[in-house]
Amino acid sequence: MKKLFLITILLLMTASVFAQEQEAKVRIPSGYQGFFEYGNTYLFDDNPSLMNFSTTHGFYMNGHTYVGIGISIDTKYLLFLLPIYGNVRYVFNNNRVVSPVVGLRLGCFDTKTVGFYGDLTIGLRFATKRDFAISFLISGTHYNGVYFRYRHPYTDEYGIDHMERCWGSRNNLTGISLRLGIEW
Asked: What would the pLDDT profile of 101-111 be if each residue is shown by its tens digit?
């Protein structure tokens, strides 16, 4: 995973350097924008990674600052999280083809009780001359107060095997996410 992470960072930096050479004018974002992102969250503990899909809708306050709300579906096996969040995003060079982006998502999710969701993102935005862009993002993601369902096998006093559904708890899930996003 460390090699994949380092290769991704090197590719993003290389693309940024080459794209800064181009002075192509692109449409400066304004008004309503929607985002759709797909990614994987690689968790720091022994849990498998989470696959996530998210959509965010909001407005550019000026050509640089975006504010919106969104929802995400993060799942792997029987762990299913549905965060609802507020999103703030800042685009640095909004009139260039490639521009750096930082973003922050804060919200909550409900499994059995309400938990906290936080996500800090950095990446590159590849814009077109129209109202469309593709983003490559790396983010640190944190879930606090996670409850999940699992199946517990047991044998009753007659020797019959059963599967019981149970709730488990995990205080924190933290990891690094790699995402691909589109903006329209």
From this structure: 999 999 998 86
Task: Give, in order, the Cα–Cα distances in Å from 118 to each of 44, 110, 172, 178, 183.
Answer: 15, 14, 11, 15, 21
Does the predicted model carry a pTM greater than 0.85? no
8 Å CB contact between 82 and 67: no
Q: Is the dihedral of CA 135, 138, 140, 146 positive or negative?
A: positive
Q: Quick one: average pLDDT of 156-161?
A: 81
| 5 phi-psi bin (left φ>0, alpha ψ -120 to 50, beta other) | alpha
Domain of 13 in residue numbering reads as: 2-183
What does 102-159 look like in DSSP terms, one character per residue?
EEEEEEEEESSSEEEEEEEEEEEEEE-SSS-EEEEEEEEEEEEEEEEEEEEEEE-TTS
* Number of domain units in the chain: 1
Q: How far is Cα 98 from Cα 17, in angstroms, rounded to an integer?
A: 9
**58: which 2 tokens?**
């909001």
Of residues 31, 119, 42, 29, the one with CA closest to residue 76: 42
**CATH code of 46's domain:** 2.40.160.20
Q: Are 122 and 169 in contact (CB under 8 A)?
A: no
